[in-house]
Amino acid sequence: MAGARGGDLFRDDGSFHGRKLATVAQGSTLDVDSAVKAARAALPAWQSLAPHTRARYLYALARQVQKHSRWLAVLETLDNGKPIRESRDIDIPLVARHFYHHAGWAQLLEQEFPDIPLAAS
């Protein structure tokens, strides 16, 4: 398990049954700073991708969410105690739809905003 820099862990007791669901790394300010630094370092490579390439990555994420939607819905329900119907029929499909939405915009950027210079077109 990848841990936080501080190495602190905490137990996540699922709201559904109150038993141990997972052991999770406790993030710190150092972890947040490290994540922001990594995101900033990755941004130029992401920006240099052609819009259709960005869309392919986002579509792939959406498909993975759909592929594992049942498992994600059960995990969401166990973690926060909401009804499975809400997780299965609303929350998880909404996650996939968000990725599809942003993938669609990545494909349309050049057409919808022709005056904005885009990298690697």
Low-confidence stretches: none
- Overall spatial form: flat
Structural class by helix and strand composition: mainly alpha
As laid out across the biggest beta sheet, the strand order is 1-2
Radius of gyration: 19 Å
* Range of strand content: 5-15%
The H/E string reads: EEHHHH
Compute the number of strand runs.
2
Helical percentage: 55-70%
Taking the alpha carbons of the first and last residues, their distance comes to 39 Å
The helix tally amounts to: 4
Task: Describe the main β-sheet briefly.
Answer: 2 strands, antiparallel
Average pLDDT over all residues? 89
Show the helix and strand layout.
Layout: E1 9-13, E2 20-25, H1 29-48, H2 51-67, H3 69-80, H4 84-112
Antiparallel strand pairs: 1-2
Helix pairs in contact: 2-4, 3-4
Can you tell me about this structure?
Helix 2 (51-67) runs antiparallel to helix 4 and helix 3 packs across helix 4. 64% of the residues lie in helices and 9% in strands. The protein is mainly α and 121 residues long. It has a two-stranded antiparallel ribbon. The chain has helices spanning 29-48, 51-67, 69-80, 84-112; strands spanning 9-13, 20-25. The longest helix is centred in the last third of the chain and has 29 residues, at 84-112.
